[in-house]
Design goal:
Elements: E1 5-9, H1 18-30, H2 41-57, E2 61-68, E3 71-82, E4 92-101, H3 110-124, E5 129-132, H4 139-147
Parallel strand pairs: 4-5
Antiparallel strand pairs: 1-2, 2-3, 3-4
Helix pairs in contact: 1-2
């Protein structure tokens, strides 16, 4: 497998992320058992694209794109915001909002390189800690993030639509 490079990008490259988002969305659909149903991929992408564009325009987020031979094979979006009022984890905290790697490029160090680049950005922005949200059914992602030094911190619970326990 040939080498890849990671570069910072701006809002002008967000449209290139659609196939990467779609691949991640398909994966989310596959692991969504006992979770909420996923949105239509086109609707999901339009919603996320709008968020990316807004965050990048506000200068509170950074886009990193991993490329091989001029083709995007992975990306990460890291956003920095105020730290939580309860937990003393820093005045600023970074959140890895998205990390996607095309299936054919997985297990080649792309994800780890994107996490390392995101950490560098977070540190430079003054955020000593970085968080990432992962679906509880995504065993591969949970193992990956554990290898990258992440540990469980906070659990987000969602009630059932019918109110049943």
């Amino acid at each position: 497998m040939s080498a890849f490079q990671i570069s910072a990008a701006g809002v002008e490259r967000v449209a290139e992320l659609e196939p990467l988002w779609a691949a991640m969305h398909v994966h989310h659909g596959e692991i969504a058992e006992h979770m909420a149903p996923t949105r239509d991929v086109a609707d999901s992408w339009q919603r996320r694209r709008k968020q990316y564009e807004q965050w990048l325009a506000e200068d509170c987020a950074w886009l990193l794109i991993a490329e091989r031979e001029g083709t995007a094979i992975g990306y990460a979006v890291v956003r920095v915001e105020e730290g939580p009022p309860t937990w003393a984890v820093g005045e600023l905290v970074a959140e890895l909002e998205s990390l996607a790697v095309l299936p054919a490029a997985r297990n080649g160090g792309v994800g780890a390189a994107l996490v390392a680049a995101a950490r560098e950005i977070a540190t430079a922005a003054g955020a000593p800690r970085m968080a990432v949200g992962v679906a509880h059914t995504n065993a591969d992602a949970l193992r990956f993030y554990a290898r990258e030094g992440f540990a469980p911190f906070y659990v987000l619970l969602l009630d059932r639509p019918d109110g049943a326990g």
